[in-house]
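Submission sheet (multi-component)
Chains listed below:
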Amino acid sequence: MLLEPRKHTPLWMTISAPIIAVVIVLILCGGLIAWAGAPLLDSYIALFVGAFGSKFALAETFVRATPLILTGLAAAVAFRAKLWNIGGEGQLYMGALATTYFGTGLITLPPALMIPFLFIVGAIAGGLLLLVPALLKTRLKVDEVVTTLLLNFVVLLLANYLLFGPWKDPLAMGWPQGAPVIDEGILPNLVAKTRLHAGLIFSLVAALFIWLLMTKTKWGLEIRAVGNNQDAARFAGISINKTIIRTALISGGLAACAGVTEVAGTKEYLTLDISPGFGYTGIAVAMLAGLNPLAVIISALFIAGIFNGADSMSRAMDVSNYIADVITAASLLLVMLSVMLTRMRIRWN
Amino acid sequence: MSQAETVLRVEQITKKFGDLVANDAISFSLGKGKVLSLLGENGAGKTTLMNIIFGHYTADGGHIEVFGKQLDARSPAEAIGLGVGMVHQHFTLGDNLTVLENIILGTESFRSHRQDIKGALAKLDQLSEEFGLAINPNALVKDLTVGEKQRVEILKALFRGARILILDEPTAVLTPQESEQLFDTLRDMVSRGLSVIFISHKLNEVMSIADDIAVLRHGKLVAAFPIEDASKELIAEKMVGEAIDPPKREPLAIGATVLGLSDISVQDEEGVSLLKNVSLDVHRHEIIGMAGVSGNGQKPLSDLISGTLSPQNGTFTLAGEKIEKFDPHLMVEKGVGRVPEDRHHEGVVGDFSVEENLVLENYRSPQFSTRGWLKASAIKEHANKLIRMFDIRGAAPETTVRGLSGGNMQKVILARILENEPDLILANQPTRGLDVGAATFVHEQLLKARSRGAGILLISEDLEELMAVSDRIVVMYHGQLSNPMQVEDVSVQQLGLLMSGEGFASPESEESAHVA
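Outcome: structure written.
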């Protein structure tokens, strides 16, 4: 068995491959649902309705996709430069911590300034967090996979300490949560009676901006060159270290913005469960999107939809909501496999 | 073909890669105790054909017979089983294993935990003696010279019972003296009834060793004749398809010094000396050819001029200006055009398009970007212009460079540097792996730059190339540089002796002799 690269990929294949993959996932997971004793067709209808079937469901899917787009972009940018940033979760919490520190009364500005201010301080906090592993990598050749991953726990424990200690909101009846973000800093609601907030618009603009950055600018050229062939990039006179540091600041900043949207948009105050692993899921989002910033939007919507849909399916059909995790994981694997098969063909000898 | 028992018969072998016909109905046969030389330019289909015989590829049509048995060759194991051995151009040895371990690797049974070391050793001893391939079986492969490593590869094939040996450009990495030694071994082998397929594009060698000659061009067998009917001119013509004139080097008076190296020394991180007190001047209107077996210090010297390495001692001047900071971008700005040794590794970003690779060194200039934004149309126009000027075939500005042939990839690199009219050109192995046509193009471009007033340092292992285009020649050995010699005053034999260290001060200690 051999894999050979394809010279041309027909358009129908590019479009149909992920769809076929999802169908296969639904068939495979059908066995699991049947095993759990629920009717198959009704379950999948419940899944679809739960993800996209109503104004409320659609809004929830967008709410969930918002931080995933941002952490997905963070991973996409970093991985393009072969900077293996596994620390999206920690950077997200840095953004959340910065939002809480500056956004709960320390500074009061009119909303038109307050909201950009929160994104800026959040992004700086996340960028600085990733700067540490980036400097260790460029100066001392320390593997960033290890340092970024471990920093996640450091930041999470810091958040734990702050929320159980000095930052604990006295009005929260003993719950470990931060003070609410002041009204000027709250991201405006987009659709009445839903949780959909302006963070979605921010993340869509960010995706467009990152796409422009990667394809139309000098920095983008440098990031791609360093990631694709570091030796040739160095030989051509591109500074590898400068590019990696710059990439780290952009990537860390993007992941931190996901923390800002969650604290100032979705939740309106900091808790220890604002992120069910958005930082890690962002890696899957980016991989699924083939590191393309615009495809990150679709891939984030897909994963958010599966999560929400499977969640509501499990409630409606009374099956374990672990099935949601299985569907998500299986979709990721099979969609990635299908995307690979559009680029390669298998030859049987 | 000569009268002898046929050991290998190739009939109507055809192999297609997409639209490209790599082998088009090729037929030939190999006699017992004969050396068949397979000639052709790069991309003519030699390696594809050998990979089919050895089982790496499956042919789309035709069949192969070895000692009268049909060879389906779906795997190298089957080819080896029938007595076909191959010595690849790039060695396939484990550096951290001993010679013996390398040789028995893969011959042991999967299901048995026993190793018959003693038996293997005896067999190896007998083979080395029989074919005059002396080697210490317990030496680590990483401590061997290139010539010795090749001997291990040959022994590996013989150990597996090879009666037909395929050698893919075996002399590319050897000094002339080592090549002579290899030829003695090969002559010894054929006199004992082995048969050899010898792939090369060095005509002198072919004339001295081959019994039969087969020439491939564009995937077709265009000529096959016994050596008695061959001449160098005839073979060259068959290979290229037309007679090619060697480039003419008009005499020019040399100009001012563009590159001055004085007492340059470089040590690696462990303190091993890579360059020892190297001094050299390159002037305008001259090409300095640097000969030497690969790994004798050419790489650090080329890195130095490329700006990716700094010297510990000595002075480095460009057009009289002393360079203190070694940085690739600075070198480009100071007018150094650099053709790196390994195109794929340092020359191009493989997944980038032609247009992106063409601006890789100067995308920062206002011509191609403003305030951080790339000027897409200017970059495309620039690419279109250079593709026309340098005749980069099969390329549009958007084409991914990875898909280009070696020659066209080299043209992309040449176009990128020559367009800036550099004062100094460093060309490290610029024609390695290129066919005659593409190599001639590179030579013409270098000579054109020389006429324009550039100084050129040409590093090559191909002595014929160096003799053809250089004004002066220096030899590098163990990090030391010989005195420059006028090309008219030296012979290939003299260069060969210098390349093997004759006439160089012997290194003070053994470690310092190991050069990366």
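Remark: The two ends of chain B are 45 Å apart (CA to CA).
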